[in-house]
Design brief:
The protein is mainly α. It has 2 domains: 151 residues, Up-down Bundle (Ferritin), CATH 1.20.1260.10; 156 residues, no CATH class. Helix content is 77%, strand content 1%. It has a two-stranded parallel ribbon with strand order 1-2. α1 packs antiparallel against α4 and α1 runs parallel beside α5. The radius of gyration is 29 Å and the shape is elongated. The N and C termini lie far apart (71 Å). The N terminus is likely disordered.
Length: 325
């Protein structure tokens, strides 16, 4: 038998007492999750933290009602049964998988938690033939639906237009600092720094395969270097720039993409066809960089375009002259 599988109970084999105990432990877990979300968000998103505080309090109240029902029907001793003990029961993602994904992802996860619980209880109620069990599962499903309504009410209470606007600005700023800024730096580095070696080799050898290999090596090497440099330069704790792993990935990937953009045309065997396409790709990359700077960094578009295009053109010309010489 496979370890960990044979020991799990099927939901339909649980007694009414065990189903009630499972509901109690699930409410306890969800309350802890909501409080963890609240603590994660409290510093930057206090209004959303208040929502999750209220949702945790709702879970506590439902847990209390379930315990009272258990005591009335089965006594004070509650069986120890949790989600992981039941085959097919809905699971919760670990907090560490969610905490770095942003406020919208956390809100969506919380909404999904409530929907999962409600759907599971309704499906279980429809599958049982025991009247009392059906009623119990139906009541639990209704309770979970009530959680969703309570969450909506709490959001209406704590998240007015002003609070939503403030939190949206904070989330946008965090997105720019964590993803856009290091990604843009990587794209600029990959696009511009690889121009000279790629075109120097191209015009020196007029061998498209050799040029492609040099471009591939330069792009991948620059991507690895930029990724590790970004990740190691700032842990994000003081600067507030977010996870160093995310920033390193953004910088490394975009650096590689920036270099590969004008290296890939040299997979074409005809030298001049490949070179013309590569030059066109270069200017597309440079204009894309200027657009990103204008869109996310509030740099006037024409000033950004002038700086990037002129600088890139000079590096390109340097590569061509060196290779031709």
């Amino acid at each position: 038998m496979i370890p960990g599988i044979s020991s799990r109970r099927r939901f339909r084999d649980l007694t009414e007492q065990e189903v009630l105990a499972l509901a109690i432990s699930s409410e306890e877990d969800d309350a802890r999750i909501y409080r963890s979300y609240a603590e994660m968000l409290r510093a930057e998103f206090p209004s959303s933290a208040a929502v999750f505080d209220g949702m945790a309090a709702e879970e506590d109240e439902h847990r209390r009602l379930l315990i009272d029902l258990h005591t009335k029907r089965f006594g004070d001793v509650i069986p120890l049964i949790r989600r992981e003990h039941v085959s097919g029961f809905y699971a919760r993602r670990p907090i560490w998988l969610i905490e770095n994904l942003g406020i919208d992802r956390i809100r969506n996860e919380a909404a999904q938690m409530e929907r999962d619980a409600e759907r599971f209880y309704r499906s279980a109620a429809a599958a049982t033939t025991d009247a009392q069990t059906r009623k119990l599962l139906g009541d639990l499903a209704a309770a979970e639906a009530g959680h969703t309504q309570a969450a909506n009410a709490l959001q209406d209470k704590h998240l007015d237009d002003s609070a939503r606007g403030t939190e949206a600005e904070v989330a946008h700023r965090q997105f720019v600092l964590t993803w856009v800024q290091p990604g843009l730096a990587g794209l600029m580095d990959g696009s511009v720094s690889t121009l000279a070696p790629i075109f120097a080799v191209a015009f020196a050898t007029q061998n498209t395969w050799t040029t492609f290999l040099v471009g591939l090596a330069a792009s991948v090497g620059a991507g690895i270097s930029m990724g590790f440099t970004e990740a190691a330069s700032d842990d994000g704790q003081i600067s507030g720039r977010g996870s160093p792993v995310k920033r390193g990935i953004a910088s490394g990937v975009m650096t590689t993409v920036g270099g590969l953009g004008h290296a890939m045309p040299y997979l074409i065997t005809d030298f001049w066809t490949a070179t013309v396409i590569a030059i066109i790709v270069v200017f597309v990359e440079l204009w894309a960089i200027a657009w990103i700077q204008s869109r996310y960094m509030q740099t006037p578009f024409f000033r950004a375009a002038l700086q990037v295009v002129v600088g890139g053109a000079l590096v390109l010309a340097a590569g061509v002259l060196i290779g031709s010489g």
